Amino acid sequence: MMTSPTAAAAPDDAHADAHTATRAVTRLSVAVAVVLIALKAFALGASGSVSILASLADSALDLVASLGIFFAVRWAAAPADEDHRYGHGKGEALAALVQAGLVFASALFIGWEAVQRIFDPRPVTSGYWGVLVILISIALTGWLVWMQGRAMRKSGSMAVAADRAHYASDLAANGVVLIGVISGTFLAAPGLDAAAGLIVAVWLFWGALAVLKTAADHLVDKAVPDADRIAITTAVLADPRISGVHQLRTRMAGAVTMIQMHIDLEPTLTLDAAHAIVVEAENRLLAAFPRADILIHPDPRGRAESYPGVFVESGQDGLR
Question: Residue 95: left if φ>0, alpha if ψ -120 to 50, beta else—which one?
């Protein structure tokens, strides 16, 4: 793909802004996880609540996951090199996959402990501390999720999206924990505290499934959504000199959208004229997808041959 200097400048700026936002929010995620672990460890020692234990275990895995994403987004932001010609964006999907595994482990641990406490209830003591810590946790987590949302809108980072999905589920989980601690402390119903821990486990398991699916879609090169493919073909066909788009292929590599296609052009065009049309099409695509890597192959109208690739027979996106 040949792109004009003007077209290249905007995506470079977009990448720089995206990486800056992503690095900042991953640092914040690690810091919040450390603070929450310290607070919940204190509350667990004071109360002995299984709900607090569930929340503490989740926060400990949050820290591990956040550290993984902290390093993954920096590796994924590294420019393409001789060994990784498509860049390192898949590193984000790998980090999200590891995070999903950690959340699954957390859900199993919390669920087992909650079931044990349901059959063997234990009183919740010093619940006031537990309530205070969980309220602080909800406030900190809510602020982090809001900051991650801002970073996602700038970067489109899948790793940050996975981290945000986890912390967003933590918000609801902390609400359940709060109910459990209040029930065990003020209603003298420790069984409700254990039941709240079990609900947290189920919630975490469900959230991990969503993270796993997103990471898997990236790793197996699932095409972008139909709406994006329609937007791609619409942008390219805005030029009446392009009469068709075929063999459109799309996939994601981290926050980068990979776009490949063939377009139909007038057979009598000079190479220079065809190149100019392709560059204009690239610029239109970059306006709609600033974080995109684009490869466009021009075909003479009516004389395009089937691309001899191994994936063509399975069906391709696009239209004539």
Answer: alpha
